[in-house]
Amino acid sequence: MNNKYDKQNIFAQIIGGKIPCDKVFETKFSLAFNDINPKAPIHVLVIPKNEYINVNDFSQNASKDEIADIFYVIYKVVEKLGIKDSGYRLLSNNGEDANQEVPHLHFHIIGGIARK
Ligand code: AMP
Description:
The protein is α+β, with helices and mostly antiparallel strands. It contains three helices and five strands, in the order H-E-E-E-H-H-E-E. The protein has helices at residues 10-15, 55-61, 64-80, and strands spanning 23-26, 30-34, 42-48, 88-91, 107-111.
């Protein structure tokens, strides 16, 4: 796997304000926005604002404040969207074998699918 961060990736462009996003929540360290191709009624992506490729990179190199913040933002999003108690999936594709498409760490929050 190539461990060098690609500064041109689409999420870097969103963070840099070069392309827009449908923002759901934001802090100093993290940004949450709606997925452009939602797989469920609620499909939000949560990303760190600094340059991390994946969970490995983030876990090793992010500050404790950044790591705490991303989970704070995940919590605030599910609270805001009303799925905190009904349930949701939290997923992060990491690396080639997981078919990670965008090489900037992101957590998918997937919800709003009714129980059977
Ligand atoms: P992954 O396969 O985990 O890397 O997922 C990448 C996700 O990013 C997919 O669900 C895409 O629909 C989503 N995506 C790609 N470009 C954008 C964009 N400009 N705004 C919002 N979501 C995007």
